[in-house]
Specification:
The protein is 33% helix and 26% strand. It has helices spanning 10-29, 33-48; strands spanning 61-64, 70-78, 81-88, 98-101, 105-108. The chain has a five-stranded antiparallel beta sheet. A hairpin with a 2-residue loop joins strand 2 and strand 3. Helix 1 (10-29) runs antiparallel to helix 2. The termini are far apart.
Length: 110
């Protein structure tokens, strides 16, 4: 039976993150880069469910974990995803709106 991450307890989410981390490491050892990326993405989503979406607000700009060349300006929060735009080091905002798990948002910058 498949459960959604929203149905998991925090302990189950921690176990899932550990399981996905192991799968990603095994895939990396086998050189399966796409499987590594898939498992890392699933891990980020599972970790997002351990955070409180109310801690993130529209119009706030945050550092992006794992991407020091960009920040992320939130337009709105939908569930555990932040919708908004990346901003590069030259303070140029990307045109394309995207959704990222809130677990990718680092410290608030503005």
């Amino acid at each position: 039976m498949d459960y959604r991450y929203s149905d998991y307890t925090v302990e189950q989410l921690r176990q899932e993150v550990g399981r996905l981390k192991e799968k990603a490491q095994k895939a990396e050892q086998l050189g399966n880069i796409s499987e590594v990326a898939i498992n890392e993405r699933k891990m980020q989503v599972a970790m997002a469910y351990m955070l409180n979406p109310e801690d993130f607000q529209a119009n706030d700009t945050h550092q992006l974990n794992g991407d020091p060349g960009h920040t992320f300006k939130i337009n709105y929060i939908n569930g555990v995803f932040a919708w908004g735009h990346r901003i590069n080091l030259l303070d140029e905002t990307y045109e394309k709106e995207e959704a990222i798990p809130i677990s990718l948002l680092g410290d608030k910058v503005k």
